Amino acid sequence: MAFEIFGFKIERKSEEQPNARIPAFALPENEDGSMMIAGGGAYGSYLNMEGAYKSEVDLIFKYREMSSLSDCEIAIENIVNEAIVAGKNERPVNILLDNTGLTESIKTKIRNEFDVVLDLLNFNNFGHEIFRRWYVEGRLYYHIMIDENDPSRGIVELRSLDATKIKKVNQVNKQKRTQDTVNVKVDEIFTYNPAGLNNQHQQGILISKDSIAYCTSGLLDPKKKQVLSYLHKAIKPLNQLRMVEDAIVIYRISRAPERRIFYIDVGNLPKVKAEQYIRDIMTRYKNRLVYDSESGEVRDDRRHQSMLEDYWLPRREGGRGTEITTLPGGENLGQMDDVEYFQRKLYKAMHVPVSRLEADSGFSLGRESEITRDELLFSKFVAKLQIRFSSLFQDVMEKQLILKNVMTSAEWSKIRDKIQYNFTSDHFYTELKQQEIMTARMTLARDMEDFVGKYYSKEWFRTNILRQNEEEAQLEDERIESELESESDGSEDEDI
Q: In angstroms, rounded to a whole number, what is the distance separating the alpha carbons of residues 407 and 398?
């Protein structure tokens, strides 16, 4: 049974795909969490895998639940704020084309189209939320909408899709060529179900690959080949932290108050009369005044039993008579070592420096001596996230440039790996760090000034101390010479 595929498809010439006709005996490795199915029954095979998809949807819901908890939410905000820096007069991300070898006219067109893509995503205003959703869920889907009557207009709208309603599927078609070789062809499509991936009662929609922009975290479950979020490693530490906190609350409520033990002398009274006598004493002396937090009143509440009540025990004749003693409350109620341990464990699982958890540990920007190794590792982790997230821009830019006839699919495949995306960093931090480095270099240069020309050459000094390459050194020499000439010309004019 054949199914109609929704959306548009960019036609690519056979010569633009050099590996399309090369025979293979194995399927390509699944690196994006897509499902491999046999050709001719995409939708039926898709629904028969309910168990796998149900677990994947449950994982997404679990990630969303984790992101709403305070401890995890603070760590997520630390990561997202480092990755996406919103500037007042500049975009959060810019495209770099220095290594592409393209002409300036083509570069200008690509930059203009990239600005269009950012406007379609509304990335200036919602870049933080987009990156956060990708980080939490581990995947991001956008429906690429074009004017089919005039595709040259490019992308008209980028519509966000719920990750629990769409899934990438690889349709595999095998054709036996000879006795020993098999030709494998893989068609990439997407399946969308408005009622969710776990719903089997409503038929889904098959969507072409080019109609969807798809970006994943790059993390895969080694067994089920499902896409995982960067929060996956934090599931166990977060659950342990919640259980420890709940246990501490219960323990402190039950052990915090001091309880009294009343030993009542009942003499030789029978058991029934002794119990009645103790109840009379309890009613006479027991204080059941409670504070109503809603009304702000203090009232007598004798209708409810409390687990924190005092103990009333009988004592027979011959004992020490009536006596009142006090049971101390729980000790060491102020210790939070176990909670802090699991908090640190949670932050380590999310690659966030533990120093950001501690309120009394300050972080001085630009002070190299006070920047910990954890902060350096955290900055590298954020840079890795930015590179992985950039695949969303790559996917959308490919469709946009081809539709606008800026370049062909073959031309794009040659330069796509040379394109870089520069995310805006915290200018204050960057400026202070550069100042710190420059100050250290100038101090070292001043101390070694007497050794230049005697033990070290000027070239070695500029290369190893000032960290200038050959082009920078030549450029600075030209600037110095030009400034000296202008100063000499100015002095001559003053003499005249």
A: 9
